[in-house]
Amino acid sequence: MSPLRAFERRVAVALEWGTWAACAAILTGLVWPAGHLLVTAGIALFIALPVLRVAGMVVEFVRIRDLRMGAVAALVLAILALAIVLNLQTNRGGG
Amino acid sequence: MADLRPATTNGSANVDKSKNAGEIVPTGADRTASAATGRICARRTAEAARACGRVRYVAARNAFTRLMAPLFTLYLFATSLVASAIGGALGMAGGILVVPILTASGIPMRTAVAASLVSVIACSCASAAPLLRRRLTNIRLAIVLELATTLGALTGVFVAGLLPASFLSLLFAAILLLSARQMLARRLAPIGGSPAASRGLAKALALDASYPEPETGTEVAYVVHRIPLAMGLMYAAGLVSALLGIGSGVLKIPAMDSALRLPLKVSSATSNFMIGVTAAASAGAYFARGEIVPGIAGPVALGSVVGALLGARLLIAVSSERVRGGFVVVLVLLATQMALQAFGLGIAGAGGVR
């Protein structure tokens, strides 16, 4: 019925795979003595998953010509980007 | 710093060396010395306690990188697993237990908050798929409310740098007590959600929807009420989430139940779906600042995911009143611990140096 049904299923699959991949990376990184970077990569993937989900929603809403919702999703994505970019700057500036 | 001196009079050269350990990073050899300093200054003034936090943090980091590493990792994994499983079994996020446990283990507030945020995202992602497949999540409503929660989180990340850790501990204690109260009071199904005419934003964005009742399989239509009020509450929830590293279910549940008047199953699923994005806003900021310590956040996230999956299985087994009562006692105890920490005191656990 809803045009979003197929999209919801794809999001479910993506989140499931993403969770497993991130968990696997963190576990490998913790068990393997030289795997410190893998732990960081796993954490980065966990943080990226919801961001990618929002990006997917922007694309999907534009695709089904629901431009109002597309704008809302794009705004959320912009806030997420702002949170990261603003703090990268403070990191560099603050030393 | 001056307060430390009387306590370390005639002290060994070791203790002398780490006297101003707050400023310098002691090497592994000084670990025991800073541990001693940590134990002494736990009983000192608030200023000394802050320095103590730094010393304990350095001690924790050294412990991780050296031979203690596997044990400390295992400890973090196991405690987050248990916290997340208990939280999950009682239908609430485990994040609220993770931060007090981490700070009681000698990890400073900000590091604990950043680690907990990662585990909050992990739990949200891990439990989202089945809820999406059962069509309980209203993703249109979620993205609209995420506008407010991410803005709140963005504010929170900047405010967090200005607030003293003691204030955050006190705020955490207050949230724990609020959760205890919510645990005692049963959540009531919102009344009067009759599918009448929807107005305003809900209509403009077509947020009303329906979901299949899991037991009967019948389609239940529902109307979304009072979006602006809910957005205000969600902004507060996002702010608190970024400050304290929790999912802020305590603040989201009133917004979902009394403002939006959603069916319980829809509000739980939608709230869980939103938590990931809210926490990603603040966790992304902490990550960009380099404030996420992988050695702590990694095992905590892993333990939380396993715990959440276990907790969901246990949900039916342990929903008795007695377990709820026990949990309320735990929440009150943790609130006391956090409040004591705010004043630089802390019970045995807080003094424990790692």
Report on the architecture of this protein.
The complex is a heterodimer of chains A (95) and B (354). Chain A is an all-alpha fold and 95 residues long. Helices cover 87% and strands 0% of the residues of chain A. Chain A has three helices and no strands. Chain A has helices at 5-31, 36-63, 67-94. Chain B has helices at 4-7, 13-17, 31-41, 46-65, 69-89, 95-104, 109-133, 139-160, 165-184, 200-204, 227-244, 249-260, 264-288, 294-314, 321-342, 348-351; strands at residues 209-212, 219-222. Chain B has a two-stranded antiparallel ribbon. Chain B is 69% helix and 2% strand. In chain B, β1 (209-212) and β2 (219-222) form a beta hairpin. Mean pLDDT of chain B is 74; it is low at 1-44 and 347-354. In chain B, α6 runs antiparallel to α7 (109-133). The interface between A and B is large, with 50 and 51 residues.
